[in-house]
């Protein structure tokens, strides 16, 4: 806690964190004293400013309209919303696999015929012209593709959408009546449904692996965090695997059949 970002008091950890923020030349973006944390236990309510938004001094000048929302967040912590005033740029790339090689050859032949071969040209100049022709032909034969970043979560489904709307409805009712039991029950049900949907989605993905590219994709996912390799899985006899090697072996047997 620290009064600098709107807490009700200042404690030792808050002082240490504030010293770190100052030494790191960071800016606190919190505005006002509206609680970011709200915990209910029956008629007991605890509210406090626990969540802090930090940014560099330059990035802080781009952040506008920082505020805490009243919308239910399926957590004791409330949503924090702000806008960033910057020019949005679409990220593009070229996929060599989508190159139209007929267009590439035609453009390259046209470029070479225009350049010709002159005895007065040096080897370095000719090499630069060839490189330029290759690059220009490739640009025309392989157009840019806009990178998509709005991928939806593969585990999201219609049931979760209904449960989330139910949370919003229960939240409004509880806010008017002061009885938060129904809202807490709906929130717990939604949280369990989200965990269940994520688990089922991951299991379905692993069971669908049937070729080398899919195995390589799974390898990349697990390779992002080495801690994932050491997990355990449930065997047919009700026991769990004890080593990472046994876990991987069981996964291979499940997705590809027994190995010899």
UniProtKB/TrEMBL annotation:
<dbReference type="GO" id="GO:0003824">
    <property type="term" value="F:catalytic activity"/>
</dbReference>
<dbReference type="InterPro" id="IPR005135">
    <property type="entry name" value="Endo/exonuclease/phosphatase"/>
</dbReference>
<feature type="domain" description="Endonuclease/exonuclease/phosphatase">
    <location>
        <begin position="1"/>
        <end position="80"/>
    </location>
</feature>
<dbReference type="InterPro" id="IPR036691">
    <property type="entry name" value="Endo/exonu/phosph_ase_sf"/>
</dbReference>
<protein>
    <recommendedName>
        <fullName>Endonuclease/exonuclease/phosphatase domain-containing protein</fullName>
    </recommendedName>
</protein>
<dbReference type="Pfam" id="PF14529">
    <property type="entry name" value="Exo_endo_phos_2"/>
</dbReference>
């Amino acid at each position: 806690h620290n009064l600098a970002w709107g807490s009700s008091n200042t404690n030792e950890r808050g002082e240490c964190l504030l010293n770190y923020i100052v030494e790191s030349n960071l800016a606190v973006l919190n505005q006002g004293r509206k609680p970011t944390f709200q915990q209910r236990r029956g008629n007991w309510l605890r509210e406090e400013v626990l969540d802090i938004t930090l940014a560099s001094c330059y990035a802080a000048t781009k952040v506008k309209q920082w505020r805490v929302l009243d919308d239910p967040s399926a957590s004791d912590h409330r949503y924090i919303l702000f806008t960033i005033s910057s020019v949005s740029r679409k990220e593009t790339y070229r996929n060599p696999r989508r190159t139209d090689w007929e267009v590439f050859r035609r453009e390259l032949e046209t470029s070479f015929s225009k350049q010709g071969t002159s005895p007065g040209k040096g080897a370095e100049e000719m090499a630069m012209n060839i490189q330029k022709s290759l690059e220009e032909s490739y640009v025309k034969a392989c157009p840019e593709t806009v990178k998509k970043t709005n991928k939806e979560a593969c585990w999201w489904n219609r049931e979760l959408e209904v449960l989330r709307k139910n949370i919003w409805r229960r939240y409004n009712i509880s806010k008017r009546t002061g009885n938060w039991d129904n809202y807490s029950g709906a929130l717990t049900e939604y949280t369990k449904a989200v965990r269940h949907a994520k688990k089922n989605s991951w299991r379905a993905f692993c069971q669908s692996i049937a070729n080398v590219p899919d195995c390589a994709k799974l390898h990349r996912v697990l390779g992002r965090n080495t801690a994932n390799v050491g997990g355990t899985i449930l065997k047919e006899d009700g026991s769990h695997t004890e080593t990472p090697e046994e876990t991987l072996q069981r996964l291979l047997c499940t997705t590809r059949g027994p190995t010899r």
